[in-house]
Amino acid sequence: MAMRQIRTDIDSDTDTTHAPGVPAALRLAFSVYVALLIWTIVWKLGMPDFGGHGVRRIKLIPFVSSGYTGASVPLEVLANALLFAPFGVFLRLLAPAWPWWRAATALACASLGLESLQFILDVGISDTTDVIMNTAGGLVGFSVCAALGRSSGSRSLLVRLCSGGTLIASVVAVTWFVSPLQFGQPDVWVEHPSTPGHSHHQSG
């Protein structure tokens, strides 16, 4: 009788059939968000292309001017943090058991992957500032979601907000893409004829 009770307790502890699963809408919203993130960071919401801009550079010193690159623009620094804040929210909703350091590792790897993609495709400058701010912004989103999503009701609300926000962002991005306005141009290097071999960096 005692063995049966112990076995029942073990089965109840390992039973996950009633555990709250991840809604399909949340998975879809996260996939769309990642696609939008790649489009925004790599191609600045413009027509995707695959190199030939001559901007394959790596900036190892964050925030300040280094080599041919200038100091980080405050608005761009803030934008990099804001772009990854939803990433942290999604991570918390998709993997609520993750500790903050695992989320930070995933965020940093995702940011590093995007910077590497820009380098490989020759469409932008790979900047350590972006990796730092992307990771920091994602951790803020992760922490805020952890604080607000303690109850099932608040978690459901956050799932709906993420899904709705991703839908709105998609509509805005596509509308901007088909509009006559230009979001930005790829990073270019302009040669100064007066100083041979010297280049000046202009970012879009």
UniProtKB/TrEMBL annotation:
Transmembrane segment boundaries: 21-42, 77-95, 107-125, 131-150, 157-178
Keyword terms of this UniProt record: Membrane, Transmembrane, Transmembrane helix
VanZ-like domain location: 30-146
DNA damage listed as a keyword: no
Pfam short name (any one): VanZ
InterPro entries cross-referenced by the UniProt entry: Teicoplanin_resist-assoc, VanZ-like
The keyword Zinc belongs to this UniProt entry's keyword annotation: no
PANTHER family: MEMBRANE PROTEIN, MEMBRANE PROTEIN-RELATED
UniProt name for this protein: Glycopeptide antibiotics resistance protein
Gene source species: Leucobacter luti
